Amino acid sequence: MPFSYHIEFGYVPGSFTVSEAYVAIVDVRHLGRLQFGQFTPRVGLQLITSSWDIGLMEPAAALQAMAPPPRPGVQASGTFFDRRGTWTAGAFAGNIDDKEPAGTNYLHLGASTSLQRGANGQLQYRSRRSLLLA
Length: 134
Fold this sequence. Notes:
By secondary structure, the protein is mainly beta. It has one domain (3-112). Helices cover 7% and strands 37% of the residues. It has a 5-stranded antiparallel β-sheet with strand order 1-2-3-4-5, with no helix packed on it. The longest helix is centred in the middle third of the chain and has 6 residues, at 61-66.
């Protein structure tokens, strides 16, 4: 059974963090790709498209601010219309990784929800500035 895995961790002095750690089964019959572990839910076409193929230097700031952080979950994804359309369905603790479609014509039908709860009933959204100049 073909599968892939991904582990991404970081170190802040005195503490290691694991931001993503998942296993993906590539060819599940009648389903496509099945992924489970901790990973970032894909919200918005710009966030699932390679940075080489988006129109601007980076995804829209508003989209980055609203996108949920990595969470434990499971998702299934696949393609249709000769890999020009994609679908993803997932369930995440507390609150979608597609392969990029081939060709130049895309069909993106999306529905995405995110339930987020903040401490003391408060929630704050943030994003990086548009240009990251050193």
